[in-house]
Design brief:
Elements (H helix, E strand, L loop, with lengths): L18 E4 L12 H17 L3 H15 L2 H9 L3 H8 L11 H9 L3 E5 L4 H11 L7 E3 L12 H11 L6 E5 L5 H7 L2 E5 L4 H4 L9 E3 L2 H9 L2
Length: 230
């Protein structure tokens, strides 16, 4: 993969891109570490306990809200008036030890020329924990989390517009990396280059549209090194 030529990359990923936007979960770290599986189970626990229902029904509602409302949290807030702080505190109380320092990712992020931002449906404390363990926290300008987005989740266009306005960058000179392809659609509409991190999950592939994906990979660091050495 490191032998790619410049012409192997979509024109939307050309040299004029100067802002690099990264999702967090299953994007900056590999899905294989199963960290998000812990969060996923905690979300199920929360839904089950909050609604007082059986586990199977809780899982069904959890995933229904994810697809229909962007996040399970947004669905719970919309339909059940849940306290977002209570929810975020509960579901992000996990064991972070599966995340290890990633030298390959560190070197790739360091080589990227321009601004680097994290844009996540998680909250900033959770993202900070992960990025520090990866060894990349100090390489990023900022983290734009669910709280900074007024609890509006991707792929709500309003949160993308606020994200762009907050950091005052030209989306036509940005590239976004994301494991849920449906979250790349608003980025593409704004003019960003798009890179889909395909983890093989049903949720990640939901609403797939080849017209909005400029590149696809199953490993962020490997793709970045190929791009930087094209």
């Amino acid at each position: 993969m490191l032998n790619y030529n410049k012409d192997d990359f979509h024109p939307a990923l050309s040299d004029n891109r100067d802002t690099w936007v990264f999702d967090l979960d299953n994007t900056l770290y590999a899905a294989e570490c199963n960290l998000f599986d812990q969060v996923d189970q905690k979300i199920s626990d929360f839904v089950q306990n909050f609604l007082g229902i059986e586990r199977e029904e809780a899982r069904k509602i959890q995933k229904q809200y994810l697809l229909e409302n962007g996040t399970t949290l947004n669905g719970l807030m919309t339909h059940h008036n849940v306290d977002p702080e209570e929810y975020l505190s509960f579901v992000h109380d996990i064991d972070f030890s599966p995340i290890e320092r990633d030298e390959k990712l560190i070197s790739a992020i360091q080589e990227l020329d321009g601004r680097k931002l994290v844009f996540t449906n998680a909250d900033k404390p959770y993202a900070t924990n992960i990025m520090k363990r990866l060894g990349i926290h100090d390489l990023f300008e900022d983290i734009f989390g669910i709280v900074e987005g007024d609890l509006k989740p991707k792929p709500d266009m309003a949160v993308y517009e606020k994200f762009v306005k907050t950091y005052d960058f030209d989306p036509n000179k940005a590239v976004m990396f994301e494991d849920m392809v449906r979250n790349l659609k608003p980025a593409h509409q704004l003019g960003m280059g798009t890179v889909w991190i395909n983890t093989g999950s049903v949720w990640g592939e939901a609403d797939y549209d080849a017209n909005i994906v400029h590149a696809e990979t199953n490993n962020l660091a490997t793709w970045l090194h190929a791009y930087l050495n094209r």
